[in-house]
Specification:
mainly beta; 8-stranded antiparallel barrel; 3 helices
């Protein structure tokens, strides 16, 4: 008879005995706006980011206001990864970026970028960040039925603000 209340108490209070099960940190989403500068162009982008532990994954979709003034639609899509270490309200760490930019000016131009660099973030709920990276770029276009490809080095700078949905 006495064993039943003890066993029932043990199962009801199980989470109190095993604190490690309660300390799992879940990830959170952020949304934001960024301004990105390349060697070839600049882009205004919307950003969606997922952060869990120290890892941060983001997708950026944007357009080129510089090309829009020339009545050309230039688009970009990029994927970012960063490993951030936090010090109070400041985070810093290495970042990798993969992106593709395209625009049509009689001929379709495509730029494929890959780069490594850093990300610097200030804030908790509202976050301001700056990112810089360097890496190779492949430019490709077709002219007179011939595919042309050129490789060059490119630098990327991003400035942005994002809001963490916690």
């Amino acid at each position: 008879m006495i064993n039943r209340p003890i066993i029932s108490f043990f199962f009801l209070c199980q989470s109190c005995f095993f604190q490690a099960q309660n300390t799992v940190e879940s990830g959170f989403w952020s949304i934001g706006l960024i301004q990105e500068f390349h060697k070839f162009n600049q882009f205004s982008c919307a950003r969606v980011q997922f952060e869990k532990n120290k890892n941060s994954f983001a997708i950026n979709l944007g357009f080129s206001p510089q090309k829009a003034t020339q009545h050309i639609f230039g688009s970009t899509t990029s994927i970012d990864y960063a490993r951030l270490w936090k010090f109070h309200r400041v985070s810093f760490g290495p970042a990798c970026v993969f992106s593709i930019d395209t625009y049509v000016f009689g001929t379709r131009f495509s730029y494929l970028h890959s780069s490594v660099g850093y990300r610097f973030v200030i804030g908790k709920q509202w976050q301001f960040f700056q990112e810089g990276s360097v890496g190779p770029t492949m430019e490709s276009f077709t002219y007179q039925n011939q595919l042309n490809k050129h490789f060059t080095w490119n630098c990327h700078f991003k400035f942005g603000v994002q809001y963490a949905l916690r």
